[in-house]
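Fold sample X.
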Amino acid sequence: MTSCEAPVFDRYGLQVFWKRRRGRDKLMAEIRRAGIVHSEPVLEAIERVERRHFVRPDDASEAYDNAPLPIGRGQTISQPLVVALMSEALAIGSGDRVLEVGTGSGYQAAVLAEMGAQVYSVEIIPALSDWAAANLRCAGYRNIELDTADGFFGWEEHAPYDAIIVTAAASRIPRPLIPQLRVGGRLVVPVGSNAWDQTLWVVERTHEGETSTNLGPVRFVPLTGDGQSAAG
């Protein structure tokens, strides 16, 4: 069952009506108050996405908290502020082709779709890939293509991409992703060997090679798969 199909009750047994604006208004006020995301298209996309569609039914009462939430299989749905920050760092426009490594519940893919991107998303865990597909379908997103595979190696079939986003922490920059970017395209990826030593990097492909920018500390679950194991 997806979150948007399930009746939602809070812990006192009263049904929660998520159509109300209060939860999203509070979330957006907190994101804006943080002052680190300035792109209005990104902020508007975050506001339009019903995050409740992408959390487990038992966590629906916390769907609009500015915090990560568990989604099973040791994975999480990212904090909305971090989703906004990474989405802004991609520097994409409407019609751009974006590869996401780590579909999770489908939330980040939905935000990118709201920004007008054509999204290709890869998830290594079959159960999460199936759940994300159901969530996105239920939420009405149709311009997102999904695959179940080791995203460390990308998705060459649809390359080159205008941007690539990795939603789990790699032990080092996933080198197979760089050639799948167009020149001028950006890879946004958290890098670090443990949860307490991760930083968010933007790698831009250039004619001469690439440039890298450190956006500061973050905290993500680790990237999994054969590629990541070999890289480590």
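Fold sample Y, listed below.
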Amino acid sequence: MNEQTRYSEEDIKSMSGPQLLLLLYDEAIARLTSAEQLLEDKNYDEFDDCMGRVSRIVRYLKDILDMNYSVSGDLKRIYEYLVYDLSVIKAGKESKREEIGRILHILTELREGFDGASKQVDEQNVEEGIR
């Protein structure tokens, strides 16, 4: 998702839960990618802002977890780890620059996993509807 892409309130209200989840991941990934460039440009104020926004998104993802699923405990620990690591990167700036790529990788993997699971559920619902 391009950072210039903005969604209207109507667009967001019409999205399904999985679409909203992917939107959150896309925004976190876009902000973290921007933060990486801002750090390279030594634009520390905007870097801090981007890192803060990514942290808020990840905390929100943790807060909305449905703990009735067995995988939720693992996801909660991953999100807590990410929030901690994001704070370390934000505080360390230049000395922790290489950590951004690792966090980007984790967020991208989580996004792809949720996207794949969502598609699998959609396909299963279609198949059940055919029967």
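Sample Y note: The domain at 16-130 is CATH 1.20.120.340 (Four Helix Bundle (Hemerythrin (Met), subunit A)).
Also: The chain has a mean pLDDT of 88.
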